[in-house]
Amino acid sequence: MNESFLYKTHEVIIQCVFFVLMMAATEAGYRLGRNSEARIPENTRSQISTIEAALLGVLALLLGFTMSMAVSRFEIRKQLVLEEADAIGTSRLRAQLLPAPAGPEIVALLGQYLNIRLHYGSAGNDLARLEELNIQTAHLQQELWTRTTAYAQKDPNPVTAGLLLQSLNQAIDLGEARWMAFQNHVPESVIYVNAVVSLLSAMLVGYSFGVNGRRNIFSICVLSISITLLLAVIIDLDRSRSGFIRGSQQPMVDLLQRR
User: Fold this and answer.
1) Of 186, 202, 195, 205, which Cα lies nearest the Cα of 231?
2) Cα 164 from chain centroid (whole Å)
3) How many CB atoms lie within 10 A of CB 26?
């Protein structure tokens, strides 16, 4: 899997570049407004203010919509970690009900599987490492499934083995779901649309200042910083493995400590 530009570039660099672009867009709009000041009648200036407010409203809707997308993906990733830990823990408890040698062997394999899944959650965006862990995960899944089905075929009372197969199947499905959730970012085009509308809004704010013949540096800085921080949080939420806001692996840690 190839990471896109936004998700392989350090977010602090993105924030700094975008803040500079916001300030540059405001300055460009201000200079354009100053050059047009003498040719714009008074009633047209009020219309510019109306358009400026409308564009900022559209930007607020876009940022809110995109933030909602990022938060929902972040929460899904967190929930999947909890569900996978529950499925592995349930499988381990059910495997303990099986007689030796099948039961202890499956419990040992589940311990290895838990360790791999914990490493998977803390591997960050190291794609080579993630691919390696996915291969190890698939190998252990196959081994667990083979051993459990072999026991189920020999067990005259298939209820216990059947329950174990059910929870194993759930753990396997959740492993795949976590891999898909890791790749399910907010579409990069949506981030770019937010950035473009932000720059256009900043340019129009600067233009309005220029037309009115005055510049408010404080307002410009507050607007640029606020929008930059919002976009930074959106991107950060979408990097649950490597951003400042990271998805917790505590359910896996707790399960490992209960061994």
Assistant:
1) 195
2) 32
3) 27
Amino acid sitting at position 210: G
Closest listed residue to residue 142, CA positions, set 168, 118, 116, 166: 168
Task: Give the number of other Cβ atoms within 10 Å of residue 53's Cβ.
Answer: 11
pLDDT along the chain (259 residues), means of 10: 68 92 94 77 75 93 95 93 95 91 92 93 80 92 93 78 92 92 88 95 92 86 94 88 80 85
The DSSP result for the chain, as a single string, is -PPPHHHHS-HHHHHHHHHHHHHHHHHHHHHHHHHHGGGS-HHHHHHHHHHHHHHHHHHHHHHHHHHHHHHHHHHHHHHHHHHHHHHHHHHHHHHTTSPTTHHHHHHHHHHHHHHHHHHHHTSTT-HHHHHHHHHHHHHHHHHHHHHHHHHHHH-SSTHHHHHHHHHHHHHHHHHHHHHHHHH-PPPHHHHHHHHHHHHHHHHHHHHHHHHTT---HHHHHHHHHHHHHHHHHHHHHT-TTTSSS----HHHHHHHHT-
